[in-house]
Amino acid sequence: MSQYNQDIEAIKALREKMTGWDAINPEYVARMRAQNRFKTGLDIAKYNAAIMRQDMAEYDKDHSQYTQSLGCWHGFVGQQKIISIKKHFGTTNKKYLYLSGWMVAALRSEFGPLPDQSMHEKTSVPALIEELYTFLKQADAWELNHLFRDLDAAREAGDSAKEKEVQDKIDNFETHVVPIIADIDAGFGNEEATYLLAKKMIEAGACALQIENQVSDAKQCGHQAGKVTCPHDEFMAKINACRYAFLEMGVEDGVIVARTDSLGAGLTQKLAVTKEPGDIGDKYNSFLACDPIEKPEDIDNGDVVIKRDGQLMRPRRLPSGLFEFQEGTGEDRVVLDCVNSLKNGADLLWIETEKPHVGQIAGMVNRIKEEVPDAKLVYNNSPSFNWTLNFRQQVFDAWKEEGKDVSEYDYNDLMNAKYDGSELAKVADQWTAEFQRRGSAEAGIFHHLITLPTYHTVALSTDELAKGYFGEPGMLAYVDGVQRQEIRKGIATVKHQDMAGSNIGDDHKEYFSKDNALKAGGKDNTMNQF
Questions:
Q1: What does the note accompanying the cofactor annotation read (predicted)?
Q2: Structure letter (DSSP) for residue 271
Q3: Residue 333 and residue 261: Cα distance in Å, rounded?
């Protein structure tokens, strides 16, 4: 017996025991329960953590089984994304949402638009998680409401075949509630601050927390200069804080994504504490740019001196007080970061790179797998990359190495529109289309995400509408470019009253008031034109 029918029978039995409950329809209760499957954010976090763990296990067996997400900065955007996925693919399997700290800073801060430097209110992060799940739960209620109406219509028409078909859809309904990988930045403070924020995010529904090894009070966007990393012990303390938060809240299989920015970070705020040669602190300090101390006079006032490989060394310190790493050590630091994170509680890795290059990513991941064979990546298919230029240059380089004539192409001007129809451009586009598949097969990428795509799509679509509506086309710009496209493509928002919950409210009024219900969906509702 399906959960829907179990609920009907349970409420029937309960109604018989209670006095004055004759007006309560057990099937209506079952419908409302189905429309509100998840009662708390913790219910959501536990449900989705299990899904992620299953997806990770399936990826370990078959690298073609990777997962994907798009960053969403508003609950409605996330909702429409998942509705679209269900419409086009019939399932949400292996499709997640990503909560981008960049977009929270740029779009959700009370200070107004901010750069990605952890200056926004940290409470806005769990608030967005809660908002996203509120809209995803409403998508469940919306789709089920249509199914309930179809069920009633089939019964009224005496169409038993249709009734069974609709009932099967209700009984096997797939929720819109999917995992969110949520960006906790560098933890917004010390390890206690990280723990407190992690709890709020988990309570809101987060099953996966992504935390980076930058210094919290010097945080920079991963695709900007000036990044400063912290020693491993400090980062491990924050990973532990996240794990304790998951365990305290009862989400025992919660997922932690450890991000390293070491590939592009040339600075550290602190020297690592080391107790013996070769420990993790000593390895961190081994990457510092230092000058040897030959005699006491080599030490200036205020200098810091360390002993490394039996030699007194003076780390190079900038006027800011930050210390420099040796040039060319980025990849080695990335590998050490990743191995150490996986051995100390992290489940997945995030390596922030400067370009989308499968070979570069695979080179680092293969080194990591020498020590942790099942290492897996969450990878940022970032809009900060010029994907067109990057892949055209990659094709150019490959062709040149093969000995193919590339004289008709200017390497430094490959973004030029004159190349758009060229053979090189077509191959580059093909490589771009294959990037996710190749990255997962060859470079250990379990999850592909785009951090802030909807930031760009909103800007692009708004530009198109504004250009036309305020120009010569006028109202036709909206009708042809938006409304008619919604109708032709079956976009549910064309009936925006329904999407916002008007029909759900009407049906609930009928549950509560029966024939006395004052409903919005009558003959005078202009939505009936669609």
A1: Can also use Mn(2+) ion.
A2: P
A3: 9
Three-state secondary structure of 119-151: CCCCCHHHHHHHHHHHHHHHHHHHHHHHHHHHH
Q: Which of 398, 396, 402, 401 is nearest to 422 (CA)?
A: 396
Contact (CB, 8 A) for 97 and 81: yes
Measure the CA–CA gap between 432 and 390, rounded to whole angstroms. Answer: 9
3-state secondary structure of 9: helix
221 catalytic? Reply is yes
As a whole number of angstroms, the distance between CA 104 and CA 189 comes to 17
Instruction: Give the closest residue to 272 by CA, choosing from 321, 230, 309, 328.
Output: 230
The low-confidence residues of the chain, meaning pLDDT below 70, are: 221-225, 522-524, 526-527
Give me the pLDDT at residue 515, please: 81
- Spatial contact of 255 and 348, defined as CB atoms under 8 Å apart: yes
In angstroms, the Cα distances linking 525 to 7, 217, 464, 495 are: 34, 54, 29, 11
Task: Give the pLDDT score at 269.
Answer: 92
**Tokens in use for 370?**
């020498």
* DSSP output for 155-186: HHHT-HHHHHHHHHHHHTPPPS---EEEE-TT
Name the catalytic one among 72, 221, 230, 338.
221
Q: Is the Cβ–Cβ distance between 225 and 297 less than 8 Å?
A: no
User: Which domains occur in the chain, in start order?
Assistant: 36-273+328-460 (3.20.20.60), 471-515 (no CATH)
Cβ density class 173-196: b for 16+ within 10 Å, e for less = bebbbbbbbbbbbbbbbebeebbb
Question: Who contacts 215 (Cβ-Cβ below 8 Å, separation ≥6)?
Answer: 186, 228, 229, 230, 269
Q: Name the residue among 331, 296, 329, 336 with its Cα closest to residue 314.
A: 296
Answer yes or no: is 183 a known binding residue. Answer: yes
